[in-house]
Write a structure and sequence with these properties.
Blueprint (H helix, E strand, L loop, with lengths): L1 H8 L1 H7 L3 E6 L6 H16 L3 E6 L2 H10 L6 E2 L2 E2 L3 H25 L4 E5 L6 E5 L3 E5 L2 E5 L5 E6 L2 H8 L3 E5 L1 E3 L5 E3 L2 H12 L3 E6 L17 E3 H10 L6 H13 L4 E6 L5 H7 L6 E4 L1 H11 L1
Parallel strand pairs: 1-2, 1-13, 2-10, 5-10, 13-15, 14-16
Antiparallel strand pairs: 3-4, 6-9, 7-8, 11-12, 15-16
Bound molecules: adenosine-5'-diphosphate (ADP) and magnesium ion (MG).
Length: 302
Amino acid sequence: MNRVNNLKEILPYVRTFQGATFVIKIGGEVCGEKYLDEIAQQLSLLHHIGIAVVVVHGGGPQMDAWSKRMGIERKVVAGRRITDLETLQATKMIFAGLISTDLVTALRKQGAPAVGLTGADGYLLTAERRAPIDVQENGKKVKVDFQHVGDITKVNTTLLLGLIEQGLIPVVASLGADDEGNTYNINADTVASKLAIALQAEKYIILTDVAGILRNKDDAKTLVSYADIDALQTMLDKGSITDGMRPKVTTCMDAVKNGVHRTHIIDGTREGTLLQELFVNEGCGTMIVDKKEKKAYEKELK
Ligand code: ADP
Ligand code: MG
């Protein structure tokens, strides 16, 4: 009977989520072989209850491993990776080739039809080359040219809407293009949030390899379970959010400022976390909302 009662508890969620759009960003660690089936199973379940799932993926660890095997030197200035021409070529192979195919095949294994594409397809993402910026390195000011790194200037959702309409799951690799024949490497968190905004998605969810936003990044017990934009701005200013967590937080903030109701950062390396965050009252990661939505959430918890 207990199991039946548990099933009944998800009815309100299934009812609200049906027909909704979720943009789900899968981090590099999470789209590795070890976690792929587990993630694909959860995504397939969402798909089958009528949620329009749009997947965006990264691939940092895979890029590092394959670049090394291909003898491509990893260039970093002041902690930031430079995408030179060879690195860009590797991103096309690893993101659009290897990881995209693995994700599509894993979804297929779970009975969910997916289509792999990049931001270059169907004019999905128009990007421009990022201008060189000044950064501090060893106390000195240096100019960094990221080379083939793009910033998104335009999103065209026609292709995505067509795929969703046909009951397919778009799996988007974080590359974009311009009209002059250039391809760009774009941060996958940024791609996901821009798509969530353009689609006016109900949710933007990030699956990564930590529990969520930690007040102290070396202490898993300091998890922030929900936060509004002001609280996060304070954490960013204080410098307690660094590295790969920074674009996650800033893109979530950008999404909620631009009409995405709820955004979540969760640990995709633990079993069932995506379903837990969505269908159980107490989620497991960090939820980022605006002030109004925060009040609504606090009411739900009571
Ligand atoms: P992904 O491949 O999922 O994008 P990243 O490695 O780019 O993952 O970003 C997640 C990393 O950010 C974590 O593994 C962690 O080391 C780092 N991080 C920095 N500050 C924080 C923080 N305050 N809370 C949680 N993680 C943080
Ligand atoms: Mg990252």
